[in-house]
From TrEMBL:
PANTHER family: PROLINE-RICH ANTIGEN HOMOLOG-RELATED. Residues 8-133 form the RDD domain. This is RDD domain-containing protein. The keyword Transmembrane applies. Keywords: Cell membrane, Membrane, Transmembrane, Transmembrane helix. It comes from the Bacteria. It comes from Mycobacterium dioxanotrophicus.
């Protein structure tokens, strides 16, 4: 198998997922700092740090994660973690994912991340999300 068709394993995909989680954390931190600065700008005399509920924070993390993953997969097939690990998400025909499939895949990964563990037992190294949506993660380094 060539580099562009060889399926990625659990370790490289897991490392990429941890990197992507860190990217989402950085985006969430930037959003919080932006909220703080906005509050400071519009009310410097009455400023206090915003308190966010766990439900609101979880919802924002859910939305940011889905938008990040779906956007990256639809545009290039690579998230930041995938670039570092030399991976690309492709369709059955080795093409870039369409926006709907990328969005469905992102929702599936955020709601059911344990589906990634199926890569360790599947002969073709597919996660449960890959099996359901007909996607593949391959090594993309040349």
């Amino acid at each position: 198998m060539s580099q562009g068709t060889r399926p990625a394993g659990i370790v490289s995909r897991g490392v990429a997922a941890v990197i992507d989680l860190a990217v989402v954390g950085i985006v969430l931190s930037a959003l919080y700092v932006g909220l703080i600065l906005t509050r400071l700008m519009f009310g410097p005399t009455t400023f206090s740090l915003p308190t966010l509920s766990a439900i609101f924070s979880s919802l924002v993390m859910f939305v940011v994660s889905i938008l990040y993953l779906a956007g990256c997969w639809a545009v290039s097939g690579c998230t930041a973690g995938a670039v570092v690990m030399g991976l690309r998400v492709v369709s059955r025909r080795s093409e870039r994912l369409g926006p709907v499939v990328a969005l469905l895949r992102a929702v599936a990964y955020v709601l059911f991340p344990v589906g990634l563990l199926w890569v360790a037992v599947d002969a073709r190294r597919r996660s449960l999300q890959d099996i359901v949506l007909g996607t593949r993660v391959v090594y993309a380094r040349v």
